Amino acid sequence: MEEVRSFLRKQADGDLLPWKHHVFASNHFGLTMGQVEKLALESDLLPSRYQRNRKTISVKEQLRLFQTHVAVIGCGGLGCYIIEEMTRLGIGHITAVDPDIFEEHNLNRQLYATPSMLGQPKVEAARKRVEEINPAVTLLPLKCAFGKVNGYDILKNVHIAVDALDSIPVRLELSDVSSEMNIPMVHGAIGGWYGQIATQFPGEDTLRKIYNRSANGTGVEKGLGNPSFTPAVIASLQVAEVCKIIIGQGTNLARRKLHINLLDMEFIEIQY
User: Fold this and answer.
1) For the domain that residue 219 is a member of, what is the CATH number?
2) Which residues, at least 6 apart from 72, have a Cβ–Cβ distance to it below 8 Å?
3) Which pLDDT value is given to residue 214?
4) Of 15, 34, 62, which residue is a domain's last?
5) Which residues make Cβ contacts (< 8 Å) with residue 96, sequence separation at least 6?
6) What is the C-alpha end-to-end distance of the chain, expressed in Å?
7) Looking at the 3D structure of the chain, how many domains does it have?
8) 213 with 104, same domain?
9) Which of 75, 80, 77, 43 has its CA nearest to residue 59?
10) Which of 149, 158, 215, 239 is most deeply buried (CB count within 10 A of its CB)?
11) Quick one: 192 and 96 in the same domain?
């Protein structure tokens, strides 16, 4: 691979690798876009698409993002935005899990829902979108429902799990499986003008505490519905939590929940 590294260094503009040379290296050396990105980052070269990250995220941290595998459980209102933002951020490996197809009521808020996609699997729409916007990222689409039976296989080799579900019992199963597999989990839930996020690390039982009175119920979104902006806000906060876990910066929402009221623009922190 030294020949490839040498080529990339010669084509770089300072420490930035322009997209056209990224693509040429992939075609010329018979490598995937992801393999070229890894070699570039390991050589302290930053693919130019990430140059607006560099004041916030170093090249070494960008490599860490690329080497991370995140599972997004649910590809609806939250999940589509989460996948979109993680792909643009440069998280290299994503597993997307959802059994559903797009229906007309998804069109008001789900990023990958379009009239032409009605009836199509949500995970396949996510896969196509990722290939379109950042071919260096690998997305594995799993058209299935998450549960304790298959959860251990789904989260195998995953570093972080992201909860984008709308079922309390299933998200508690995700919480349990994540803890047993020593995987951090970033929780998000939405309903109407409201949302919440929390980060649960192995050994913690934050989700059980949050839902201790409604473990068998459905999420409030079933009753309140969701406008377009609520999932975008909560998903962005979840991706920020994922990013902080990976690069080891900032303060996470461990053992606490952030409740967001967009109607009155109130953010309330609750300790657990």
Assistant:
1) 3.40.50.720
2) 79, 82, 83, 86, 94, 95, 96, 97, 162, 164
3) 73
4) 62
5) 72, 75, 79, 83, 122, 123, 126, 127, 139, 140, 141, 142
6) 49
7) 2
8) yes
9) 43
10) 239
11) yes
Only one residue has tokens 């597993």, namely 95
Q: Are residues 84 and 169 in the same domain?
A: yes
State residue 222's pLDDT score.
62
82 and 53 share a domain?
no
How many residues are given for the chain? 272
Q: Which residues pair with 187 in a beta bridge?
A: 163, 198
CA distances from 78 to 36, 37, 117, 192 (A): 30, 27, 18, 13
Classify residue 116 by its DSSP letter.
Answer: G
**Per-residue pLDDT at 267:** 97
pLDDT in tens, 115-154: 999 999 999 999 999 999 999 999 999 999 999 999 999 9
Amino acid making up residue 217: G
Q: Are residues 153 and 24 part of one domain?
A: no
Tokens 């998804």 belong to residue? 106
Concatenated DSSP letters for 186-240? EEEEEETTEEEEEEE-TT--HHHHHTTT-TTSB-THHHH---SHHHHHHHHHHHH
User: Could you say which of 39, 62, 85 is where a domain stops?
Assistant: 62
Range of the domain at 39: 2-62
Q: Are residues 218 and 256 in the same domain?
A: yes
Q: How far, in Å, CA of 77 to CA of 139, rounded?
A: 18
The pair phi, psi for residue 56, each rounded to 5°, is -110, -35
Looking at the fold, whether 171 and 230 belong to one and the same domain comes out as: yes
